[in-house]
Design goal:
Radius of gyration: 22 Å
Strand content: 5-15%
Distance between the termini: 41 Å
Order of helices and strands: HHHHHEHHEEHEEEHHEHEHEEHHHHHH
Shape: globular
Structural class: mainly alpha
Low-confidence stretches: 1-29
Number of strands: 10
Helix content: 25-40%
Largest sheet: 2 strands, parallel
Mean pLDDT: 88
């Protein structure tokens, strides 16, 4: 199984010979107005956006198929059991009833790469899109690409672990990118040490450009409707990040420009920009998942809201929002968090992260340094020197569980 990991590594490290280069003539500045697209919250627009989120590759097959030849490796070596073990997910609703019954009955070989090809033919592997043709009488994977859903969707495990109904916008915290890459025989020992330290649900979206290593936890892509800048460092709106990832990480064919970081990628035809509005509309439509019944103490949570309003609401404006909607950026020293990632970005600081679906996606902070909500509260009690009792801290945790 080591050979296919070479090409998965390529997915996230962006081989230098195939990574779009920043223009030497890029000027300094901070205008990201070009990414302030207007979402189209119509039924047709949302349907289009869903398709973009789930299935659009932005032409990145040109890299994953023509250059990396990942389709050949999957065809020969990647079986469903291996795919599930590294956090890939399968959409149960894309599997026909007779095939699902055969899987349940143990009549489908989950150790065969041919089964993976069948799942790709059904568009059932979340975040991967394959073209399957009949060659010499058998199904053959001829092209393969990746989509936004790879990192920002999961499944509800209703069919089996890793197999179920899609849950768009939920970060795939089971996706162990670093572990996959660290097993690749095509990378250096130094790179393996970097990737091996990432852990599940983490990814560094700048490593392939600056060679530095400060991985981030994959963030949720739900609850964005009232968020102005959806990156940890508030470099731009959601369409800014969608374009950045599509062009520089997925290797899609399109345009991305940010003079602040010296990047000006132009590719023709631009397959990314025309899809940004519909994609943003769909992302904005995804609500944060409500806390499950019985997962918190309502009485304690009501008391905790009072503590929150007194101690936290100046930054988390509106109860669960962010002061970044008015342009506020906080230094790492102010937040008590590690500043290494911020130093690599245009803003050099962190925005206040909107609180949405907190019960669903530990660990917390941009680097996952707080394993629990208790740890988050203890962190800010210390950093902000809050005068709260042990009972108030416990109540505050119960309130955060409701967000």
């Amino acid at each position: 199984m080591r050979r296919p990991l070479t090409l998965v590594a390529a997915l996230l490290t962006a081989c230098s010979s195939n990574t779009p280069r920043a223009s030497d003539s890029a000027a300094t500045g901070s205008d990201t107005s070009g990414f302030n697209v207007t979402p189209a919250p119509t039924a047709e627009g949302l349907s289009t956006g869903k398709d973009v989120f789930r299935f659009e590759t932005f032409g990145d097959e040109k890299f994953w198929t023509d250059t990396a030849r990942m389709h050949e490796v999957v065809q020969k070596s990647v079986d469903p059991t291996t795919a599930l073990s590294v956090g890939l997910k399968v959409d149960a609703e894309a599997i026909p009833a007779d095939v699902a019954a055969a899987i349940k009955a143990g009549k489908v070989d989950l150790k065969s790469p041919a089964t993976t090809v069948t799942l790709l033919k059904l568009n059932a592997v979340v975040g991967l899109k394959g073209t399957v043709s009949t060659v010499n009488g058998r199904d053959t994977l001829t092209r393969l690409g990746v989509t936004c859903a790879l990192c920002h969707s999961t499944v509800d495990n209703s069919f089996a672990p890793g197999i179920g109904k899609r849950m768009d916008g939920w970060p795939n915290r089971d996706l162990n990118v670093g572990a996959i890459i660290s097993l690749s025989p095509a990378i250096t020992a130094e790179q393996k040490a970097v990737y091996g330290g990432w852990g599940k649900g983490k990814y560094d979206p700048r490593y392939n450009h600056d060679g530095k290593n400060t991985p981030l936890v994959l963030p949720p892509a739900y609850g964005l409707a009232n968020v102005k800048n959806e990156t940890y460092t508030a470099e731009g709106p959601i369409s800014y990040w969608n374009a950045y990832v599509a062009v520089t990480q997925m290797h899609g064919q399109g345009n991305f420009s940010d003079p602040r970081i010296g990047m000006n990628v132009r590719q023709s035809p631009d397959l990314v920009t025309p899809k940004l509005a519909a994609l943003a509309a769909y992302q904005h439509s995804l609500p944060a998942p409500p806390a499950p019944a019985g997962s918190f103490d309502p009485t304690a949570a009501a008391r905790g809201k009072t503590v929150f309003d007194q101690s936290c609401a100046s930054c988390h404006v509106g109860g669960s929002g962010t002061d970044n909607n008015t342009g506020v950026i906080h230094s790492a020293a102010e937040t008590g968090t590690d500043g290494a990632y911020a130093a690599r970005t245009a803003t050099k600081g962190y925005r206040t992260t909107p609180l949405r679906g907190l019960w669903q996606h530990p660990p917390y902070f941009h680097d996952g340094s707080a394993a629990t909500l208790n740890a988050v509260v203890e962190h800010y009690v210390r950093v902000r020197k809050l005068s709260v009792t042990a009972k108030q801290k416990a109540d505050l945790v119960e309130y955060l569980k409701t967000l």
